[in-house]
User: Which sequence fits this backbone?
DNA sequence: TTGTAAGCGTTATCAA
DNA sequence: TTGATAACGCTTACAA
């Protein structure tokens, strides 16, 4: 590497034309005679010349990449197969739009620098909330972004799920299966943003769980209902499971706010010969890839990850191309995905 | 969007200083008086000024991103939890180096344009082989890259696994468990590169399987040994399973060249009430995340995905920073991961 | 401590 | 069909 870079000037000089001509040879093929074009291309090929993409972007303003803004660092986030589906959804649109995707994550523990410096035409944000500093920086960048999971009052397009209803339906189902003693596991918030804040997503799901409890006269304060928290990873789920099973009053059902946590709990059960759903019922949220391969298959709430992501990507592409958006806020329905991990004990 | 961009000139003009001063305020804090600095920052903050990263890069030459060059498009690749671990490994290094990661995948069905235009300091390539056109373009970009899974004779640093040995050991184990009638499933090659070519990786694993067969006097041509191919996805595995089980002479063991395929086969078995490993033994390759959560837990070959990725990222960072590389070719050992999906029938 | 001005490598505009 | 040349917005010697 670091042989000196070959520039458009080199090519122009060698052939004895202006660099404009070389530039046109690479771009608008029309203007140039076929003979000139092939002469230029031959020389370029021989010298291994590729137009410097940074310089090109400086004038064209078109980059060809969109940024996926993660709420946590890569190492943490990519524990969760959630992101497989999400990125697939984004990718399905990008591939036909000449776009690649960049993963924008905190560096040196700070996301703001990443957002300031990354080279993208637009962002898809995940769980980013308006009061965060990152949000303001995003605005300053004056490039479009679409929010997943957070609908704001402002004019930021968003794609969300009906999390509250999804959580409500799941809890209702668990209650109907006769469970009265329940552990709810919510996830710990992203700390990467160096700000304390409430998570809208978490709150919505909690509200859903609670409203279903209320319907049958229970509440989160009932003795038989206990809430736990853990990191949103497999290991987080395993750890919190240990905690739950060490208590005297064991629940009959565990509701995890995320599949990966539920899978962690199941993994703990497997290791400790706790039979699911015979000894304990477990369910999750998200319907991440492979969540149906657990044994037993995990009952969960499908939140249309792929569709949300591809819709967000489509909206973003429209913004980047200065098209009108037909809708600014799209909400997907959640779907209760009943599989085999909850037992009827009524 | 598309309010006119605020530039360094605007800030300079408003305060009545040169743009150099503004630039220094944002970068080398030393030179500037604290008072001036805060004045500049205040104005910048008020106007929402962020230095244009593209312009900045044009002079600094430092981007802050590395590209992960996928062999297939995103939608296809991200079926495989393999990439979760891989990207985690890369991310673990990037986070401490001020780097984000870009996923470089084919757009409009062509990877070469992506490689030509993406804004990265270096690449990590996956299964990219020297005879591919993409390889040449990569060279032309004159930025460093590190190859995962393909060791070349040339001076491209590489991180590989001992795939041949890993495959050999796995097959040996399966044979020792008494299996003589075996289906081997290999994966179909990436077509995104628009070139037909042999896959070094696939060949190595095949050679490993075959050499173990040979040791007990069998070969790929034996009647009891059948090879299949499918796409390297869960669905691919499900489909090929249907094929395998529709044959008259069913194998007692299925060896998939990739965990995700094996998981697909298991999924098919589950749906069709075929008990693993009672009715059929199954094993995979890779040891991808969640491959131990299947029922029964999948026997496979661990190929140190995370370590390979982080090692490749470390090497790449050294190249980007013009440091000497201590080693140019690193090969990781594979580890036979015996779990519960292969039954002893001897 | 601050200003001047020369790059950086393209593309785009206007002439020719 | 081609050429000059001005952007593009920043960083960084070198001067002051």
Assistant:
């Amino acid at each position: 590497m670091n042989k000196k870079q070959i520039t458009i000037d080199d090519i122009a000089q060698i052939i004895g034309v202006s660099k404009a001509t070389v530039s046109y040879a690479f771009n608008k093929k029309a203007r140039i005679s076929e003979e000139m074009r092939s002469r230029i291309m031959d020389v370029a090929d021989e010298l291994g010349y590729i137009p410097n993409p940074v310089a090109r972007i400086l004038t064209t303003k078109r980059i060809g990449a969109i940024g996926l803004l993660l709420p946590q660092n890569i190492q943490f986030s990519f524990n969760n197969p959630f992101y497989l589906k999400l990125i697939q959804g984004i990718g399905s649109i990008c591939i036909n739009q000449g776009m690649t995707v960049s993963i924008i994550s905190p560096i040196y523990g700070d996301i703001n620098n990443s957002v300031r410096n990354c080279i993208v035409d637009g962002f898809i944000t995940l769980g980013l909330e308006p009061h965060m500093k990152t949000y303001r920086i995003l605005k300053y960048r004056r490039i479009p972004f679409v929010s997943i999971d957070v609908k704001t009052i402002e004019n930021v397009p968003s794609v969300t799920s009906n999390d509250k209803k999804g959580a409500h339906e799941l809890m209702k189902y668990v209650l109907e299966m006769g469970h009265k003693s329940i552990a709810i596991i919510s996830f710990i918030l992203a700390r990467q943003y160096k700000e304390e804040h409430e998570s809208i997503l978490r709150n919505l799901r909690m509200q859903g769980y609670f409203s279903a409890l209320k319907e049958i006269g229970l509440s989160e304060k009932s003795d038989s209902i206990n809430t736990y928290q853990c990191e949103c990873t497999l290991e987080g789920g395993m750890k919190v499971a240990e905690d739950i099973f060490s208590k005297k009053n064991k629940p009959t059902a565990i509701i995890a706010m995320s599949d990966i946590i539920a899978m962690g709990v199941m993994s703990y059960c497997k290791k400790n010969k706790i039979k699911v759903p015979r000894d304990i019922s477990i369910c999750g949220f998200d319907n991440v890839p492979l969540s149906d391969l657990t044994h037993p298959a995990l009952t969960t709430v499908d939140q249309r990850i792929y569709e949300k992501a591809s819709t967000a990507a489509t909206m973003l592409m429209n913004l980047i191309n200065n098209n009108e958006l037909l809708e600014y806020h799209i909400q997907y329905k959640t779907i209760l995905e009943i599989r085999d991990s909850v037992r009827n004990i009524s």
